[in-house]
Amino acid sequence: MTDLHVELAGVTLKNPIVVASGTYGFGREYGQFYDLSKLGAICVKGLTLQRREGNPPPRIAETPAGILNSVGLQNPGVDEFIAKELPFLRQYDVKVIVNISGNTPEEYGQMCEKLSEAGVDLIEVNISCPNVKAGGLAYGTRPELAAEVTAVAKAHATAPVMVKLSPNVTDIVTIAKAVEDAGADALSLINTLLGMRIDLRTRRPVLKNNMGGLSGPAVFPVAVRMVYQVRQATRLPILGMGGVASGRDAAELMMAGADAVAVGTACFADAYAPVRTRDELARYLEENDLNARELTNTVRPW
Length: 302
Hints:
Elements lengths: L5 E3 L2 E3 L3 E3 L21 E7 L12 E4 L2 E4 L8 H12 L5 E6 L4 H14 L3 E5 L3 E2 L5 E2 L4 H14 L4 E4 L7 H10 L4 E4 L3 E3 L2 E2 L4 E2 L6 E4 L4 H14 L4 E3 L6 H10 L3 E4 L2 H4 L3 H15 L4 H4 L7
């Protein structure tokens, strides 16, 4: 049988398939379709320090080969997650990754302390959030801001810290190297690309918030390019994502440099997409006499 085990920031996953934050909730709905233990890890819906209701609708819209979303981090807050959702997830043999967002470095630090004490396996730090102290500028757009929040997260976490990079920058490699130097244990990329659609009938944006994050197959080539670039510039393990919908997609992103791969938007159209992706990847590895770890970073440039 093909060996699917991989390592991500010192955490052993039974297979490279993770489900991406924001697309899988806390696993309860998908758990009605299959055993969540089939996955390598579950990255839960993004959490904030306090409960958030999110943005007003309409906040999700279909686009060619993807979706736009402006959900606005609706979530129950970190304390309620620890009390009600984490015990549910611990029923399964699956690693738990928790995505966090904050408006200040101090908020990130508080959440890292709480989640580390609760025993989560890995913390994913979303740096696409606005820094209120920097006039709303997103942490992920400036190396110094990305490094600041990474350092604070690391200082307050005992669980490994993985930083999620934004693609909405001129040079993602500069950001990646900044968070590596600040102590990050791993990187995840890419987050959504900023996009917009207009309703021709009303002449208004289709999203109430005007713009939103584009995800799905349309962004896959961007994800492959950015994972490849970051892999060439950093030694950190990478969780790759962005439009993955099949085992072939997963294999391609791993060849580009990802150690593990997250399936996100595909889950909305096919609840079984992560499990199917795992099985398709396993067949590809078996046909090519490889294990999962041997596939990472094997692209051969011209």
